[in-house]
Amino acid sequence: MHRIAVIAVPPVTLFDLSIPELVFGGALVNGRPGYEVVVCTAEPGVVAGAGSLSVNVPHGLEAVERADTVMVTGTGDSEDTDPRVLAALRAAAREGRRVASICSGAFVLAQAGLLDGRSATTYWARSTELSRRFPGVDLRPGVLYVEDGPVLTSAGLAAGIDLCLHMVRTDYGAAVANAVARHTVVAPVRPGGQAQFIDSPLPPENGVSLAGTRAWALDRLAEPLTLADLAAHARSSVRNLTRRFRAETGLSPLQWLLHRRIERARKLLESTELSVEQVARLTGLGTADSLRQHFARRIGVTPSAYRATWRHERDRGVSPE
């Protein structure tokens, strides 16, 4: 039986803390449990939650010493992690055990020095903070989870389920992982490199002088707009347009157009049954091949895979995280 120690670092995020027990606890191998999951903490007892709830954790960090995998789940505040937790994580890594985090648990791994020089991810809303505090981490803020050798990290909320299913698949194979997915009513496979399904954070628009031109362009995304077209509408030279556009949006005019076209393509793929070719034409990306290329580069999956995931989630009546 594979032993997993889940370290509760207060204040804990209770949803994240429940994920390992939910996923690993449902993994059966030849009719027997595949995992033993133990939640532990530096000071056994009542551990404060990030919200109004708390949780009783009876086990101390001695559970880490017996574990094959050590996980840290999301924390509400990870500025000053207990040194005993960091020491336990470092010891586990030195001994070659698998170490993983869900959501902002990546901050704890980073404090322990386990993410230095490694690729990692975390909840998208805290990515900037992680990069600022730990510049040695090769952060990949847009993906669901990252596996870099024996160290694994995931984005927030449902991405933690995807990471745990990936670990089950690695340990016991696809059949066991798929059975767990069916039991928990989630998609059996969402690739780690798939982008988190969040609104792409475009830079804030800090000016309104070109707002009319931007609105005009949004109404004509299906057309092959050029810099000259935009400049003509704004009654400006191309050079002046580019300078003003970047000052107001943080992007060049063509970058801004591409962002908006990809966003339009996402909405069409989510809400319509239009073919990929039709979506490409309606968003001004021209051909299906062009759409696939730009979409995969920005979102991390093909348009067809993106639509399939949303269709699966829509059929269940929920939106993917």
Description:
- The protein has 14 helices and twelve strands.
- The chain has 321 residues and is an alpha/beta fold.
- The radius of gyration is 23 Å and the shape is elongated.
- It folds into two domains: 2-184, Rossmann fold; 211-316, Orthogonal Bundle (Arc Repressor Mutant, subunit A), CATH 1.10.10.
- The chain has helices at residues 14-24, 62-65, 83-94, 105-111, 127-133, 158-172, 174-184, 211-218, 227-234, 238-249, 253-271, 276-282, 288-299, 303-316, and strands spanning 2-7, 28-29, 32-33, 35-40, 45-48, 54-57, 69-72, 98-101, 119-120, 138-139, 145-148, 151-154.
- 40% of the residues are buried.
Under CATH at level 1, the class of the largest domain stands as Alpha Beta
Fold-level CATH name of the largest domain: Rossmann fold
Shape: elongated
Widest β-sheet, arrangement of strands: 4-1-7-8-12-11
Number of helices: 14
The helical percent reads 40-55%
Instruction: Report the portion of residues in β strands.
Output: 5-15%
Report how far the terminal alpha carbons are from each other. 31 Å
List strands and helices in order, with pairings.
Blueprint: E1 2-7, H1 14-24, E2 28-29, E3 32-33, E4 35-40, E5 45-48, E6 54-57, H2 62-65, E7 69-72, H3 83-94, E8 98-101, H4 105-111, E9 119-120, H5 127-133, E10 138-139, E11 145-148, E12 151-154, H6 158-172, H7 174-184, H8 211-218, H9 227-234, H10 238-249, H11 253-271, H12 276-282, H13 288-299, H14 303-316
Parallel strand pairs: 1-4, 1-7, 7-8, 8-12, 9-10
Antiparallel strand pairs: 2-3, 5-6, 11-12
Helix pairs in contact: 1-6, 6-7, 9-10, 11-14
